[in-house]
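I'll show a record.
***
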Amino acid sequence: MLKRALGIALGWAALTAMQAPSPPAAIELWRLDCGNFTFTDFNAFFSDTSEYPPGPKDLVGSCYLIRHGDTYMLWDTGIPGDTVRQPIETRAIRATLRATIVDQLARINVRPEQVTVIGISHYHFDHTGQARDFPQARLIMGPGDLVALRGTDPGVEREPLAPWLSGGGQVVEARGDHDVFGDGSVIMLNLQGHTPGHRGLLVRLASGSVLLSGDTYHFTEQVERRGVPPFNTSRADSLASMDRFDRLGRNLRARIIIQHEPADIAKLPAFPASAR
């Protein structure tokens, strides 16, 4: 009973934070280049009900730097940095990277040690690949993904997060919706289904709310077609999270950013410009 009451209280606190009128701290958001992808057959890769025509599709990887007052947070860390020198090529995908996150941050005079918070949407390699470059940061992830990372099941990307999994770094479990700074300005949203602990991100700028998808969606057609990738860990949770994401976007009048969709990431200024 106590555990249930605590869960309700935490959920109420997160909901109240989402409805807060304005964040007290200055918030700034940069969109970072975190990869480019060509999928050989995006229908087979992204739908377990054959929702899309066969053939290739180009998508992007995007990560985000958030300044909250004097604190810097990274949302996702893209594909591995050595992809700059050696593209990733398999039968299903080709991935390239133009510049590492560290090199991009140098352009706006942000040093790696200044990044003290990393929020990871989920454990896939294209969202965790450069986390090791920020070992001093506090890592925040959904508890379902942390359980998987601490286990032995295949298909879970562990190596990029080894500094935290080994006990060498601080880890925070984002239970329910997690208010990162405690003032409603940045909230990790519980959007399970793609992975057991998958999260999205709500950033409340002075200019309006921005809703980052993680991998709730991968591209625009998925919003209408509701194609669920065959590798998602829960079909029912995936569809429920899509519905929640859509409703939050409408009700908060948020700028929706599907993180792998080129047309969506273009809604934010091109780096090194930022949104406020």
